[in-house]
Amino acid sequence: MEINQRLKIEEVCNPGKSSLLKFCSIKWNQQVSIAPLVSFRIIFGLLMCFSLIRFWWRGWIEAVYILPQFHFNYWGFEWVTPPGNPGMYILFIIIIISTILIVLGLFYRIATITFFLGFTYVELIDVTTYLNHYYFISLVAFIMIWLPANRFLSLDVYFKPSIKRVYVPLFTVGILRFQLAIVYIFAGLAKLNYDWLILAEPMRTWLPAKSHLPIVGAFMYEEWVAYLFSWFGAIYDSLIVFFLLNRKTRSFAYVFVVIFHVATAIFFPGIGMFPYVMIASTVIFFSSDFHKKLLFRLTGDVLLISAPNSTNTYRFLFYKPLYIGVIIYIFFQIIIPLRFLFYSDHLFWSEEGYRFSWRVMLIEKSGNAIFTIKDGDKVYEVNNAQFLTPLQEKMMSTQPDLILQYAHYLALEYKNKGLRNPEVYGEIYVTLNGIPSRLFIDSTINLARQQLSWKHYKWVLPYTR
Amino acid sequence: MKKSMMALIVNIAAISVIFFACSKGGKDTPDPGDNEKFDKTAMLTYYVDQMIIPGYTAFQQKTNALQTAVAAFAEAPSPATQTEAIAALKTAHLQYQQIEAFNNLTPATSATLEYSVNFCGGLTNTDLLLNGFSVDSVTIENNISTGVYNLSEYSNTSFYSQGFPALGYLIAGPDAIAKFAANTANRVKYINDVAERIKVLADKVVSDWGIYRSTFIGNTQSNVGSPIGNLVNQMAYEMDVLKGPRIGWPFGKQSNGQVFSTKVEGYFTGNSIALAVANLKNLKLVYTAGGSGKGFSDYLNALGKQSLNSMISSQFDITITKLEAIPDPLSNSLVAEATAVNTAYGEIQKLLTLIKTDMASATGVQISFMDNDGD
After folding, report:
1. How far is A172 from chain B (nearest CA, A)?
2. Which of A42, A381, B48, B333 is 20 to 30 A from A326 in CA distance terms?
């Protein structure tokens, strides 16, 4: 296998056959220090550990995964159900242990697989808990399964020194940088819209609620501040990756990353761990040399500064399928956030193709949903509070697929109560980015008979300003 | 390096400009409004000094008077003392409507005021028998006959056997006077205990506000659990209670028109509509801050949301008018004046939507009783 690869590299280096693809291939396999992966493994593990404990400590395991009697499923993942009490706590303990193992680099492959599966399972329980950074964590966890991040400064190496490596192919670091680039660039592109840039919504709405902040608070009512925030945010998200990639601007850009995300944490404490996840993750953009020096200073291990050779360089066993896998992964990461283009309706209104697309803090939307069950001449109005938590109700009222899931659940509930053929109607009012609340869906449509679909829901009323 | 960066920024700016030029763009530029600074501390100060503390102090006085009237009735049950006690109960209950909008602020929550004084069962109660403004007369009579009860117990059974609903039953319920003939001492003790507990809790809330006042006006945040966040959330909750336990549920909105006339607020005193109107009028007062220029309505104006403000104001007025059009006692009107009740219900729903979505959105307040992450 190794010979095969070497042959390939020689082939690539043959000047007669030079092409962009081959240049990429060389770059792709270029040997770089393992240090960035090691730093990332430790930082990511610690952050996840803290993040999960925080979630528990705030009582959210119970509030979000144990108390609700109904959960909004992801299509195709209906089989994901919360393991109840104490199952849910046990699951969290397992995931927390896996984060600690990741930090220590012990049973790394098992730990990353456990963390990925465990964390993703928890996130799949209820759509209303969807957050972009949870999705990001799942993706990074998936990537980390395949990375040799435990081949240095880990207990795995301590117990089996023969697996120690100090060089890895560049693409192992590159894939993490790619993932972050996707987050930032798509977050930036998402902001290039009329509401955000021209109306400065939702910043115009959100900032006056921050007038309590010291010093800057007094400016929160000023219109230009809303524009400043909107435009700065859009430019920052769209471009920061390029400044992070450029060696000359990198440190300057990282200062910006820290300032920007700390500012968002101060202004919008509701976004939780997101700023810290981004501040921590972007260290992957620092050069391999930077990480190598850091690690060398930390460990004093001279192997780190030795020249790459066949014994200290990590090689993937099944590199061909792996390469194909990476290319497929990259393809989907680009396609998924763009799928909204296949829907004709206003994205923020119907939210078709909205999730999994790095649309962070992008719109101010809220709704009030009143459901009525009809069966023959019988009419029952639904008390949502009886079936949903306030968080679930809030999320459901503005998202068509969740409205439909809930309507189907209601049909079933009322059937169980003895109704023969319950029809479900929704009178739902939604306000988006400051437009007055208006009817969101056709209130004369029996939602019980509408199917979940990837296609546009015709019963969602068209958006008008 | 700097040059290349500048070039990049200029490029992007240029691309952005082209992007807007090409997008449909600017047909209705938003009303800039008078984006003058709004003084949230002044708003909270107005609420605490003009509405909250005076409201609770008046409530305290009226619960004192209620306790005296109840004691007189219990000592010598007669139509005359009964009339006095009913009047005192109605007065205190009406005054309670002036402070219910502040029920989720620390002094009231720490005293469990809502549960112990005017329990409405909450919005999630699925008990088929005891829900809404039910009175648990079985438990009350049982408490009296055994003489064993603990009114500070934190349970629905306990909440449904004390407070204004229990007093209504004990003072104005069927054979209220005659029932004193049997087990007199226990009955006298129970009715006095219930009246005293209301008064004690009122005392506690009044004294707690003396301490909490500075915390309240010192926090002008809008997040979950902040004073502003709580005030808006409670407005939404009050509307939910009006839509559900106060009007909609007894009216049979959730039960295919099956009416629950005994589950209206103030069933035995027969003044449900008067109570609901007082409650809603007070809610409007919270919204407008009595025209002082310091209320939520003024905050919306300061945010350039004049049209939303006038929509909410007029919806308050319409809803109050439609509520007032229902004659008391509501327990009769649920059937006899079904059209009037239904009309009022429709208006309540509209007002609820305006407060829960538009107003909460505009003020940056999350309608939620739970803190959570969101992005």
Report:
1. 28
2. A42
